[in-house]
Amino acid sequence: MTKSNVILPRDQWLQEAIEAEKAGSQLVANALVKELMFYGLYNLADLEQVQRDKQTRGIWLENVQNCLFKGALKTAKYILEEAVLKFPTKKKLWKKFIEVESEFGTLDSKAEVLRRAME
Q: 60 near 44, Cβ under 8 Å?
């Protein structure tokens, strides 16, 4: 992912998604998150698959915390949505998703995430 032929680091792209959300551009924020999920994780390529997956999930959870800290709730939820699609059996991801919905979502959104987690 480049901006004006300049390669931006992962954190900068996450910040771009947060700024898009704050500007009301939810589609842009969501599209950036989808493209960002594995961007910049090439330094994990030397790890064994299990370790790489664990490190990836840890980075994503850190990204979620960063988004929440910056008030970018929807961007945090976009990251969690993509994370549970990639790793649907990982309880830690679902737990965080449920936690976020419990704190910031509606009863319906929390119920929907709980239902999906139980599948």
A: no
All domains of the chain in start order, with CATH: 2-118 (1.25.40)
* Residue 53: half-sphere exposure toward Cβ, Cα within 13 Å: 12
**CB neighbourhood size of 59 (10 A):** 16
Which helix (H) or strand (E) element contains residue 51?
helix 49-69
pLDDT in tens, 56-92: 999 999 999 999 999 999 999 999 999 999 999 999 9
Whether the CB-CB separation of 67 and 75 falls below 8 Å is answered with yes
Q: Using CB atoms within 10 A of its CB, is residue 98 exposed (0-12), middle (13-18) or buried (19+)?
A: middle
